[in-house]
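User: what does the whole thing look like in 3D?
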Amino acid sequence: MADGTNILTARRSRAEQRPRAPRRRRAAWVGYLPYLLPGAVAFAVVIGYPLLTNVYFSLFKWRGGMAPLRWNGLGNYADLLGDDQFWTSFANSVAMIVAMVLVPTLVGLVLAAVLFDYLGRRFGARVSSVLRATYYLPQILPVAVAGVLWNWILNSQTGALNTILRGMGIDSPPNWLGDPATALPSVMLVLIWVQIGYPVVIFMAALQRVDPELYEAAELDGAGWWHRFRAITVPQIRPETFVVTLTCTVAALKVFAPIYVLTRGGPESSTLVPSYYSFLSFFDKSQVGYGAAIATVLTLVIVGVAVIILGLQGRAERREREGI
Amino acid sequence: MAVATPTRAPEVRRTAVDSRYRRGAGRWLVLAAAVVVGLAILAPFGIMLLNAVKSPQDYSANGPLSLPTGIYLDGVLAFWERTEFPVKLWNSVFISAVVAVLGALLSLLNAYAIGIGRVKGRLWIVTLFLLANMLPQEALIYPLFTMAQSVGLSNSQWSVIIIFTVIQSAFGTYLLASVLGTFPPALLEAAALDGASRWRILWQVVFPIVRPTLSVLMIFFFIWTWNEFFIPLVMLTTNDTQTIPIALASLQGDRMMDAPTINAGTLVSLVPAVVFFLIFQRTLTRGVTAGAVK
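Assistant: Here's the predicted 3D structure for the full assembly of 618 residues, as structure tokens:
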């Protein structure tokens, strides 16, 4: 991703440096506009128009369908500010970021480095690629299917985990997904399980890019594994770290299916997330305007977070270039 | 490493001996830890496999960790019939395949104009596509839902196909545009000198060269659409149109779903994804890498 935007900016600055024959250049690119037409129409219809309509809906009280739209101005947004469930849902988004970004990225970084730089060299590439495939397995299933499996494993009565625990002599094992105290940590564990393979695969691919001589030189200088990890691995694969952070943070803010199949936001809203809250408002409570307002706020948060991460990435790259 | 050391200087050899010393017990510990992580990730699959072919009596008597006393296929059959699985499988395949083809086509057209045509304002266009890919689907769903109703596409797979074609091609455009941005200009100039039109250059010069990238994109689009949950859940409301994940999730609250049926259902539902992954594994790992570095 990083390189993509760089290519574009680089190309633009090259174009700016070239003042000659501007008329012919313009004629050249105008000829390509028809190729953009199907995409532009499709985007306007499927993304642009619905997005604006959703913002429009958020300014009304509307029960959906044939019911009349009643103007509410910014009333829905004002209601959100005083809505405990709304704040709970965004607080839970932070938990989702911990489970889908923070833990998988940190653990994935260590796992990728261990597989690539330690086990790969001592036991051969086969061992590390089998382990990598194992870690990646949860990523290939539909997340809803994985969620249904976990929902059964964690079921308090018939689930595998509690049956095992009872067999070990624990009489009243926790109701993992049914107790407000354990539901959120349980959901987070499932998400870590789902997510962990993604950074491992990306980071291992990134490590192939790193010049092996760097490691050899550091090793000859007597640097231990941990030292090499900090001084070479982490800085060398920073671009990929940004990509993983960005894509996973956006995914964590959007998370819906696991919540739907694991807990439906319960118990007592302890696992409610913004996307599920807006879904509930739309289709369960028939508060379309309110649901649209939640979705609009979520959109702004996601775009804001993405812009911040992309900005940090740009700054890190600039600093690196100046450093060299 | 070990092969190279004898030819090197004495003090180098000493570090190599140190590291070989460390290798002795340490490397087995690290391997054991990595394998334990792998087993922890595999455990849910193992439990599922054990219980997918176990009778309910066997499950309540011997618990989830025992080997099944006999092969019991009623769970699989019950799930297969209850969900009319072949219908769901076809729905998933049909929707995902059409989205993969149309999405790749739309990405190619967009990327041709952006990467090769270098239309003005392309930086903004690509940024817009990138943002579109990040939008939460909740911010689009209600208008899309009412739009589908008003054009007679409610509960139609084509509504889902159209929506995902656009959403997936947002990413595809972004990726392909940066690939085509580095397209060798000499090839294009040669074709233009031969008098080839833009349309012919697209299909006879550009398309053959980016075909590997397009096939990776199509595999991605297929899997992503296959795994989608939210939009199909809202748009596809009856049994004959739903996809596999929706069918499984909608059986979940069912009181009649005992442990073997749930496990059998999960097993049957994830088999297509695993098969598809195994077939395209090589292309895919290359693609994951391409997506990260591009």
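In plain terms: Chain A touches chain B through 103 residues (CB under 8 Å). The first strand of chain A starts at residue 60 and ends at 61.
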